[in-house]
Amino acid sequence: MSALTPVLSAFWDQKDSFTIAGYKRNGGYKAVEEALSMEPDAIIQMVKDSGLRGRGGAGFPTGMKWGFIPQGDNKDHYLVVNADESEPGTCKDTPLLLANPHVLIEGVIIASYAIRANHAFIYIRGEVTHVIRRVQQAIEDAYKDGLLGKNIRGKGFDLELVLHVGAGAYICGEETALLDSLEGFRGQPRLRPPFPAIAGLYARPTVVNNVESIASVPSIIEKGAEWFASMGTEKSKGYTLYSLSGHVKNPGQFEAPLGITLRELIEMAGGIRAGHRLKFWTPGGSSTPMFTDAHLDTPLDYEGVAAAGSMLGTKALQIFDETTCVVRAVLRWTEFYKHESCGKCTPCREGTWWLVQALKNLENGEGKPEDLDKLLDLCDNIMGRSFCALADGAASPIISSLQYFRDEYLEHLRNGGCPFDPAASTIFEGVGVR
Amino acid sequence: MPFSDSHFDAMTKIIARYPRSRSAIMPLLHYVQSIDGYVTQEGIEIIAQKLQLETAEVNAVATFYTQYKRKPVGQYHVGVCTNTLCAIMGGDAIYQSLLEHLEIENDGVTADGKVSVEHIECNAACDYAPVVMANWEFYDNQTPESAKNLVDAMRQGNPPAPTRGPNRLVSWKEASAVLAGFNDGLAGEGVQAGEPTLLGLKIAQGKAGENR
User: Fold this and answer.
1) Mean per-residue pLDDT of chain B
2) In terms of CA atoms, which chain B residue is nearest residue A18?
3) Domain residues of chain B, as ranges?
């Protein structure tokens, strides 16, 4: 008996799952007909009742976010979908859009109608050419079908949907940086308040939602808030996509109710790769503090992961076995944050630079034991002292790895260098490469 | 390449997508790359003119985003993911072996102008690690050998099709036009999903193991 609940992924195995014909054959675009016959506020209430929370990492209740949009204000409203999937380890929205872009478009129409927006944007990262093709084609086909444009399905609702392609900046996944980028500026976060619900795109009321959040909406309309809320745990309702990568036998996507454990997921992935054991893992991308084999039974919902000291994030489960040097892993993530720091705030711009220097020395066995405390001190001066969460994310792998693997850092110093063989961690280890 | 009237028409179409013209700056930069191969000074000046901005304002945006290149790249621009997970799974070895094999440095281009290589950050395909991108198309589950074969085929002018992409690898300029929002009609080609994407679904259907 499988604990899985494929909804979004239910017909990804059909060759034409990404076409409008394939989507309709599987019941697609029925929810939009139903939604356009409802009062917009009733849709917002339904999404609130479902308990759907943001799937992009923060877990903010989606219906509540929609409810923050002031109504009757005679201003343009906007819906912006965050498809800038870039958090290390996160790989759910990209395969979703490749296999079925129409479920997102259907969600966009319903959400726009609910918040009374006549203009919506999908901000997709630029490094995924074929996914961009699929979404572009899907938008064109939806226009041809009368699902976008003027007077949709004769219900008097107009919606323009534009695909906006990014150009390689992790920070644009942060919602206010995304809005600046969409307005044609460098993608740098804004100081909040005002929040996007009051002053977002072009300083107008704006909802920014993750792909998976919006794609979940049609199923809620079709099957009901109660159906959605019947899955998951007390405060983390519904199904979601878990992405397993790294040192497991079969990596992949698993759609399950919130609250499944890594132990269950690893079992479905065929276990840790043969002859090895779990060392550390991230529950929701590199910005979420790492876990170890002591957390195999932690319920992977918002509360369970938080209670264990991390965050559910994007449910990007990156699995590393005992061949992996934790210092090397953390150094590489830190180099990423340094590269992606937008440069707006000093603690992040300068701090990530210093973190890389200190970690490089440690990885090369050239540091001093006191450097470990200096690292923590640096993290303390970066976390919570910047405009956005990128800086907090940069500190997470460092603080958590020192919590669980302090001695491995010291071993680098005793050893005068990294004690691990990087070849042993590769998937082609033992296949005769190099 | 000098910009022609048809290029200006395309740029006008890009601007018309947005409620406010400045929002068109990113697709316009992708579009300039589809004509010139990189963001040229001429391209910057034309965008500034079109959007009634200072060239410094366009430059400020162009230099913020890593996909906008300030010098020519190869006809096939290869990105090797060396973020933590891919790096550990073999990305570091792939990246090093490609640089040695092609005798170039990071961001370098082969003398024949065919191939350029850079190390990239996480490309949202971790369940297919180690991942190599070419003109931002997916080449999944790579090894140093497969990556070397890939770039050799590129230099001979017959690269294999991407793992999850159209039936042929388009050029850098052609891919840039797609990023600028111009449909090249290839969306229907290629698989809808790879095996890892379908793993959970197949287990739920009781079909796991059939194709593995």
Assistant:
1) 96
2) B192
3) 5-62, 76-170
Q: What is the DSSP string of A29-53?
A: THHHHHHHTS-HHHHHHHHHHHT-B
Nearest CA in chain A to B200: A254
Its CATH architecture, for the domain B5-62, is Orthogonal Bundle (1.10)
Both tokens assigned to B152: 């050799």
DSSP state of B164: B
Comparing CB atoms, the residue among B90, B190, B204 nearest residue A427 is: B90
Tens-place pLDDT, residues B76-125: 999 999 999 999 999 999 999 999 999 999 999 999 999 999 999 999 99
Render pLDDT for A74-132 as a digit per residue (tens, 0 to 9).
999 999 999 999 999 999 999 999 999 999 999 999 999 999 999 999 999 999 999 99
Q: Closest Cα of chain A to B143: distance in Å?
A: 7
CB A125 within 8 A of CB A84: yes
A421 contact residues in B (CB cutoff 8 A): none
The Cα–Cα gap between B48 and B24 comes to 11
What are B5-43's pLDDT values in tens digits?
A: 999 999 999 999 999 999 999 999 999 999 999 999 999
pLDDT of B211 > 60? The answer is no
CA atoms within 13 A of residue B180's CA, in its CB half-sphere: 26
Provide, as residue numbers in chain A, all residues whose Cβ is less than 8 Å from the Cβ of B32.
Answer: none
Of B35, B175, B81, B72, nearest to A89 by C-alpha is B81
Q: Is the pLDDT of residue B147 over 80?
A: yes
The answer to whether residues A108 and A81 touch, using CB atoms and an 8 Å cutoff, is yes
Residue B210 has pLDDT above 90, yes or no: no
Return the pLDDT at A388: 95
pLDDT > 60? residue B68:
yes
Q: Give the integer Cα–Cα distance in Å for A408 and A327.
A: 8
Q: Domain B76-170 belongs to what topology?
A: Glutaredoxin (3.40.30)
- What are the respective helix, strand and coil percentages of chain B, to the nearest 5? 45, 10, 45
Q: What percentage of chain A exceeds 90 in pLDDT?
A: 98
Domains of chain A plus CATH, in order, are 20-229 (3.40.50.11540), 239-321 (3.10.20.600), 326-422 (1.20.1440.230)
Q: How many helices (H) and strands (E) does chain B have?
A: 9, 4
ipTM entry: 0.97
Q: What is the pTM of this model?
A: 0.97
Count, residues in chain B: 212
Residue A340, min C-alpha distance to chain B (Å): 9
Burial classification of residue B28, based on how many CB atoms lie within 10 Å of its CB (0-12 exposed, 13-18 middle, 19 or more buried): buried
The answer to whether B20 contacts A165, with C-beta atoms less than 8 Å apart, is: no
From the candidates B47, B89, B141, which should be mutated to test the interface with A, based on the most A CB atoms within 10 A? B89
Q: Closest Cα of chain B to A424: distance in Å?
A: 9
